[in-house]
Amino acid sequence: MRFVLAVAASALCVLAAKLEPADGKVVFGVWFDGTADTSIYSGNDTAAKVNDRLGFNVGSFQMWQSLPLEHKPEMAPLQNDDGSINMDMLNEGTDASLFLTVYPKSLAVNDSDILALANQCADIIKSGRNVFLRLAPEMNGDWFPAYSRQPAQYIAFWQKVHGVVTGVAPQVAFVWGPNYHGPSTQDTYDPYWPGADYVDWVGISLYWKGFARDWPWAVNNLSPINYTSDIISGVLPEAAEDNFYAKFAEKYNKPFVICETAAGFIMSSYNPTTKVVSPVSPGPGRAELQLSFWKSIFNDDVLRKYPRFKMVFAFEMYKREDNMDRDFRATTDPESLKAISGLLETMDKKGVMAWAKSSAATSATSSAADQVTTTKAVASVSPTASKSSGFKVQIAGIVGLVVSLLL
Ligand SMILES: *[C@@H]1O[C@H](CO)[C@@H](O)[C@H](O)[C@H]1NC(C)=O
Ligand SMILES: *[C@@H]1O[C@H](CO)[C@@H](O)[C@H](O)[C@H]1NC(C)=O
Ligand SMILES: *[C@@H]1O[C@H](CO)[C@@H](O)[C@H](O)[C@H]1NC(C)=O
């Protein structure tokens, strides 16, 4: 019996992680701004509009809510009146997954609030979408004081939420995502690591706003082609010597996701005293700047050097921060859209991209080989066409059976 268990367990180890796309594929995801607040300038977006602009079915959409839920009128219609995400904003009619970012309001959230989150995830999965849970991200910075920079309490909180959510919705993939080391003084990643048994995917937030040496950033510059690579592997001068990829993705063999990313094109500067908005030189121009940054992600070197890189989320928003008006969107003005969708098309032709399937077509077009993953039990685990995940579930079932026979 012990021999059987050992064999089954070692078979599990070599298989794909939860919701991992097929070998060699990368999921392009989008975090869109669906708010109605016109003062932010980037509202009114929906999943369907994103897909229409790009001409591809984006593989995953990011949305956020608080834990416990909190009513935020300014987030309508992205959030319902109770503060939960409004699934109607995902009106694109595909099987794209949901990448749910959850910001805790403290690390002492009670069990009933965590259970409500677990049930919400289970309901979304039942409705036909895979769910990633990006819990309490960027915990190594100082801008989320409710939960950041408290490593011991953070890890205890994480493990508790992991237990409750996977107890109710075992298919949810837990994403652990600190913030990249830029010029500011974030903590290192290590103190916040919840442990390999509690994490399915590892990732970071990563932005191009300028060279580290130029902080505070006020000028539009092209991104170097090696920018993203240097951040991921912690190479100076752009990042601290903290190699995220080696320490977490490689060491624990976890899929790696760039949880939110963009180039911030500066439109104007803002003087908070006089309230005057002043123009800023476009430098090389918006589309060139956007393309230089996205090429630092989608290039052959990155794909070869980081085989566990599996997903990336474009932060499609306009934001005033540090008294600069930055447009992070790469798909709204016609020139940037042309450049970025062209880059995605090039990657698509190389067979790199994993797009969502349109919901209506799923059953009609799935091949015989895919049928395994479309049975009721497995479909909710793996619409992203990972056959090995389906296999993993079956093996897990066998292990469970053997264990229960032993007891
Ligand atoms: C969003 O829609 C409203 C109502 O149609 C409109 O007034 C506003 O200008 C739009 N905002 C943006 C950023 O498109
Ligand atoms: C949990 O906290 C919520 C507030 O977030 C409160 O409404 C609820 O009564 C609490 N439940 C328990 C069992 O303490
Ligand atoms: C990346 O490029 C910059 C020049 O843009 C260079 O200074 C840096 O050393 C390069 N990094 C690596 C790891 O080659």
TrEMBL record:
Domain of life: Eukaryota
PROSITE patterns: GH26
GO BP: any one term: substituted mannan metabolic process
GH26 domain: residues covered: 6-322
Active-site residues, Swiss-Prot/TrEMBL: E138, E260
Signal peptide: 1-24
Entry coiled-coil feature ranges: none
A Pfam family assignment: Glyco_hydro_26
Alphabetical keyword list: Glycosidase, Hydrolase, Signal
This protein's record includes keyword ATP-binding: no
Gene3D superfamilies: Glycosidases
MF (Gene Ontology): mannan endo-1,4-beta-mannosidase activity
InterPro entries documented for this protein: GH, GH26_dom, Glyco_hydro_26
Family listed: Belongs to the glycosyl hydrolase 26 family.
The name this protein goes by in its record: Mannan endo-1,4-beta-mannosidase
The species this protein was found in: Chytriomyces confervae
